[in-house]
Design goal:
Layout (H helix, E strand, L loop, with lengths): L2 H7 L9 H12 L3 E4 L4 E4 L2 H6 L4 E8 L16 E7 L5 H10 L8 E6 L2 H16 L4 E6 L19 H15 L3 H12 L2 E9 L16 E4 L10 E4 L3 H13 L14 E8 L5 H17 L3 E8 L8 E9 L2 H8 L24 E2 L19 H20 L1 H8 L7 H16 L12 H16 L1 H17 L6 H19 L8 H17 L4 H18 L23 H18 L1
Parallel strand pairs: 1-13, 3-4, 3-5, 5-6, 10-11
Antiparallel strand pairs: 1-2, 2-4, 7-8, 7-12, 8-9, 10-12
Helix pairs in contact: 4-5, 5-15, 6-7, 6-10, 8-9, 11-13, 11-19, 12-13, 12-19, 13-14, 14-15, 15-16, 16-17, 17-18, 17-19, 18-19
């Protein structure tokens, strides 16, 4: 590793695994008006009971860590009631999201508003939590913010990403809730506002995840236009020019009517302009960017009624900035001007009547007690079959742990280089719980029960969109495997898992995702079983189909997930999610045949 690389990768942390928790504990230590929900990475206002008692709508947002001060920094009067943090650049698990919703809805009749950025992992994990909250009788609705103006193509993608405009949405919705507006009205205003907003980002240097190298490489004289906030590359690479020229490039791209995601902007329009530091830009540079952006807009007849410049949503230490524009009306302007004590603003948040800093407090999380106990789980497999399922799980998870570096390298092309970390984290947790063959820690004698356990591990340990997808896959399998255990039922379980992932994730076979491998395996398996092929041979052919399809994703156009935001020129290797499916399927086959 050269000196430049070593400098980029330096982080002043205690450990990679603990950095998110340490960050949240530091936040509440400075701001005793905030507390952590026990057992979860959730920050909540200490006066949440008073907010609920007042009959006001409560608001929760969240997402991956590494974007500080988003989102926990916006918890406070006039903005959010709670925020949920995932691992670095990974969506939080539904379990913690649901815990946050319960914490800010207990006894509430006004309801809960969930605000998320339009990223697949957030849509899946927050969507799961919202559905489970509704099933518990909680009044809840969700607003998805997607205001990215980078994409130029009208081809199918995962949609406009949610960027710094999400913070503006926190402010608007928080002010409306503080006024006592009903949930339905807040949602209507918020969804309309998302269509009147646009953001474009640009960076001079990439970020590096804790424990990893840079997410992509930029030459000393290069800058990247249209990137997201997870370290993924943008849509165009340019030579570095002056701040004035850079701002013109950014706003021209944002407002170009030839681009499918552009923001309509004309002379006479009244806007709010937010200049956001992506993490590594100096205050000197940010002030220059703000000056140039406002000057350019006003030179084109746009009336900048409100302007903000600071650090709102970061991408760790990425050097760069984003510009967000919002068309204003009287309601939105009033919301932006409303008072807030959220901690991302300079003043700390103190409990009512307290003037001195206190040690941070914690709040008990409301948990729903499961009715089924381990004693009620009965073996439905013979001892030989149980041992075989144990071997399959062990081989499959070990193969993913061993492939960690390979999967991370594949992911650097289209994402933040952490697919291997995410999947191996879940696989290692399964291995840890699996125990020995003689005394397994998972109910390997009951496929439905063990699938439910894998669902829980994927949701609570793996994190990110991968955790959400595998949770959906295992949850679906668990429900089907309660019926019987014929080869056809295993095939049906895979089919339902694929359908569920498609419904929540928005991807389809052919979009260059893990679905491609899963679908190839299912199609082949179903076909072979229908022809009465020996089940083991049918699975062998299914695994071959999954592997072949995984390799072919290298030439597929990405139309879902983070890869859909990256230029085709950057995508030369196979999709890491699809490769991961091929890896664990091949390992499972080896165990089955041994």
């Amino acid at each position: 590793m050269n000196l430049k690389m070593a400098t980029v990768c330096k982080k002043l942390i205690n450990s990679v695994s603990q950095c998110v928790d340490d960050n949240l504990e530091g936040l509440v230590a400075v701001n005793p008006g905030l507390c952590l929900l026990e057992g979860h990475r959730v920050v909540v206002r200490t006066d949440v009971a008073d907010v609920i008692k007042s009959g006001k709508v409560t608001i929760v947002c969240g997402g991956g860590s590494g974007h500080e001060p988003a989102h926990a920094g916006y918890v406070g009067p006039g903005m959010l009631t709670a925020a949920v943090a995932g691992s670095v650049f990974a969506s939080p698990p539904p379990r913690s999201i649901l815990a946050a919703i319960r914490a800010i809805s207990d006894g509430s009749s006004a309801g809960v508003l969930v605000i998320i950025k339009n990223y697949t992992g957030d849509r899946v994990n927050f969507g799961l939590a919202v559905e489970r909250a509704k099933a518990e009788g909680i009044k809840v609705d969700m607003v998805v913010v997607g205001e990215d103006c980078a994409l130029t193509s009208s081809d199918k993608t995962a949609g406009r990403r949610g960027l710094c405009g999400t913070v503006i949405m926190h402010k608007i919705c928080g002010a409306l809730a503080e006024e006592g507006r009903p949930l339905e009205e807040i949602v209507e205003i918020a969804r309309k506002a998302t269509t009147r907003m646009g953001t474009i980002g640009l960076c001079l240097a990439p970020c590096s995840l804790p424990g990893s190298g840079p997410s992509f490489q930029l030459g000393i004289d290069e800058m990247e236009l249209g990137l997201g906030v997870h370290g993924e590359a943008g849509i165009k690479r340019l030579k570095v020019v002056s701040a004035k020229e850079t701002i013109q490039i950014m706003i021209d791209h944002m407002t170009n009517p030839k681009n499918s995601t552009h923001l309509d902007l004309k002379s006479g329009d009244r806007v709010a302009c937010m200049i956001n530091n992506l993490g590594g830009s100096s205050v000197l540079e940010m002030n220059i960017i703000a000056k140039e952006a406002i000057s350019l807009l006003e030179s084109r007849g746009v009336i900048v009624e409100r302007a903000y410049c600071g650090t709102f949503v970061t991408s760790l230490e990425m050097a760069g900035a984003s510009i967000t524009l919002l068309h204003l009306d009287d309601t939105l302007r009033k919301c932006l001007d409303a008072t807030t004590l959220a901690v991302a603003w300079p003043q700390p948040l103190l409990p009512a009547g307290v003037k001195l800093r206190q040690n941070p407090s914690k709040m008990k999380a409301k948990e729903v007690v499961e009715t089924k106990t381990d004693k009620e789980i009965k073996d439905v497999l013979s001892p030989a079959e149980r041992n075989k399922l144990y071997d399959i799980l062990k081989k499959a998870t070990e193969s993913i742990v061993a492939a960690k570096t390979e999967l991370n390298e594949l992911d650097k092309e289209s994402g933040d280089g952490d697919t291997g970390n995410t999947l191996s984290r879940g696989a290692q947790a399964i291995l840890d719980q699996l125990g020995s063959r003689e005394s397994p820690g998972l109910p390997v004698g009951n496929p439905s029960a063990v699938a439910a356990c894998l669902d829980s591990i994927a949701e609570n340990v793996m994190g990110g969109s991968s955790g959400g997808f595998y949770s959906l896959l295992f949850s679906s399998a668990s429900s089907v495997l309660q019926q019987s255990l014929s080869p056809q039922v295993w095939c049906d379980a895979l089919k339902l898992g694929i359908q569920t992932i498609m419904r929540y994730g928005g991807a389809e076979p052919g979009d260059r995702t893990m679905l491609d491998s899963l679908n190839a395996a299912h199609t082949t398996l179903a076909s072979e079983l229908s022809m009465k092929t020996d089940p083991v041979q049918a699975f062998r052919l299914a695994v071959q189909a999954a592997d072949k399809t995984a390799q072919s994703t290298a030439t597929m156009a990405a139309r879902a997930g983070r890869a859909s935001y990256v230029s085709k020129d950057h995508l030369k290797q196979a999709d890491p999610g699809a490769i991961a499916v091929s890896i664990w399927m091949k390992a499972a086959l080896m165990a089955l045949e041994s």
